[in-house]
From TrEMBL:
<dbReference type="InterPro" id="IPR003594">
    <property type="entry name" value="HATPase_dom"/>
</dbReference>
<dbReference type="Pfam" id="PF02518">
    <property type="entry name" value="HATPase_c"/>
</dbReference>
<dbReference type="InterPro" id="IPR050482">
    <property type="entry name" value="Sensor_HK_TwoCompSys"/>
</dbReference>
<dbReference type="Pfam" id="PF23539">
    <property type="entry name" value="DUF7134"/>
</dbReference>
<keyword id="KW-1133">Transmembrane helix</keyword>
<feature type="domain" description="Histidine kinase/HSP90-like ATPase">
    <location>
        <begin position="308"/>
        <end position="398"/>
    </location>
</feature>
<dbReference type="InterPro" id="IPR055558">
    <property type="entry name" value="DUF7134"/>
</dbReference>
<feature type="transmembrane region" description="Helical">
    <location>
        <begin position="111"/>
        <end position="135"/>
    </location>
</feature>
<dbReference type="GO" id="GO:0000155">
    <property type="term" value="F:phosphorelay sensor kinase activity"/>
</dbReference>
<feature type="transmembrane region" description="Helical">
    <location>
        <begin position="48"/>
        <end position="65"/>
    </location>
</feature>
<keyword id="KW-0067">ATP-binding</keyword>
<feature type="transmembrane region" description="Helical">
    <location>
        <begin position="21"/>
        <end position="42"/>
    </location>
</feature>
<keyword id="KW-0472">Membrane</keyword>
<keyword id="KW-0808">Transferase</keyword>
<protein>
    <recommendedName>
        <fullName>histidine kinase</fullName>
        <ecNumber>2.7.13.3</ecNumber>
    </recommendedName>
</protein>
<keyword id="KW-0902">Two-component regulatory system</keyword>
<keyword id="KW-0547">Nucleotide-binding</keyword>
Amino acid sequence: MLVWERVSAGVLGYGRRPEGIAADSLLAVVLLAGAIGAAALWPDGRALDAAGVLLLGCCYLVLPARRRWPMAVLCVILVAAVPYHLLQYGHESTIPAGVVALFTVASTGPLWRAVLVAGTLAGVIVFVMTVLISADHGPREALGTLGWIVAVVVAGQALRAHRGYVAALLDQAEREAQSREDRALRRAAEERLLIARDLHDLLAHTITLIGVQAGAAAHKLADHDRPVERDELSGSFTTIANACRECRAELRATLTVLRGGTTAGVPDGPGEAVADVAGIADLADAVRAAGIEVKLTSDGSEGALSPAAGLTAYRIAQEALTNVVKHADARRVEIDMRQEPGGVRLTISDDGRGGEPSGGGYGIHGMTERAQLVAGTVTARPGPEGGFTVAALLPLDRLAPQPRSADLENVD
């Protein structure tokens, strides 16, 4: 298809490319030389002279302009061919020029124009043949001429339809390629956003926990009026070590996915389990280690969440508890998870100083985006009596068995 397209563009002609004009110029010279040679070697009428060569030149040397002005070129050829035939030169010598010009008109314009031009040209040719040249030309010659004209017009329209078909295919391929590129860019942006959220949630929580524990240990060591309790220091450093280990495991899993791999090859170890809703209890323990009282209640609805929604619940709780430790100056925080008609509601509320959230961070925005990815919602606002409350409503996993009604589990 592409080979034929190049041949038709370069030889049969359409467009205005410089290489097309060069091909037309070469075609005109070759056809003119052939016409002159045929008229000189096999004359069927008047011998070819200077006037005949001039008229033939007018017929052929205008062909390089046929792509730009197809109708004008056909008219010039017709004007030069009529006196050529009236002077009884070799009639066959002008046929190639007329065929090429008519083919160009038919292949570059709509069907109605091609039919109109073909009808006019047929009328002129039949009139010249039967009236002006010789009355001996009968219906057979006229019908033969009409047949050639119809064949050329049909071929030109076929080429035009072929070019339209190829152009439509190329346009469709270009749109599909652009669509694939847009989808790839969108997926890359979504992946970058997801990785940014994961790194933010992971590092912010871990660094906050390490900072709190390190500050507490430093304060204990700096208090000369109070003897240092080895168990207290050991607990702080153990919490820091566990946080570093868990952060390293999650960071390694994230980087493995970023490099195009999967977490299947990451060896398991302490703290290296995939984060899910069950890990909220570990987050509560970490907050307790920071000196904040934590109350965790659940009605056993964890199993009603899909893995994606469970991970979302874990990340939302992680970010909310990180904010409590960093900003709330709270003494107590409550974590409640229970099933509602619209899904599973996770609520984290504290008794800190509250206030509207600042617009400089990414935590609440990231929680909202995470919830939207699993068709959930998040609200974050100050409590009615102080403190701050984050509430997430996450959809149920329709494929999972619904949890039984259970007594509330209180973990203080």
